Amino acid sequence: MAGVNKVILLGNLGADPEVKYLEGDNVVANLRLATTESYKDRNGNRVEQTEWHDLELWGGQAKIAEQYLKKGMQLYVEGKIKSDTWQDQEGNNRKRTKIRVLSFTMLGSKSDNPGGGAPGAYSENKPASNPMANQPKAEAAPDISAPSDDDDDLPF
Question: The whole model's pTM is what?
């Protein structure tokens, strides 16, 4: 049976993207995203718990991140969990878990976004998409005004 590896996050960027240009026109951007959950404890006190997530964007997404994403911006992210394992200089086995971003959407208004860009959606398959572009066009509303007496086609 096949498994599912899907992550959905909504949070704020903790820093500007770190972008690296690699061989063969490959680009990678690394981001830190904070998600905060708030709840009331048994005593009625409000408690906030923040988790930090390491995000990885490649190709066109990385270039968009470099151009538009800034610290503090609100971001909606869909991706999958990836783990890297390696040995450090002392020979210790290390493991790091990150989110490989498949699509993201900048949230908030233009004035909320320090990068100046309008909110938008960006995915691995289509660099810049307008969520409303694929919606069917609204048709003109039918005329439902009351018919006049001389237009009566009803058989009764």
Answer: 0.68
- Asked if 54 and 34 touch (Cβ cutoff 8 Å), the reply is no
- Those residues with Cβ within 8 angstroms of residue 103's Cβ, 6 or more apart along the chain or in another chain: 77, 78, 79, 121, 122, 123, 124
Distance CA 122, CA 65 (A): 10
Instruction: Write out the E strands in the chain.
Output: 7-13, 18-21, 27-40, 46-58, 74-87, 93-107, 121-123
pLDDT digits (tens, 9 = 90+) for 15-71: 999 999 999 889 999 999 999 999 999 999 999 999 999 999 999 999 999 999 999
- The three-point CA angle 31-97-26 to 5° equals 50
Q: Which residue has the tokens 């005593």?
A: 43
d(CA 137, CA 156): 38
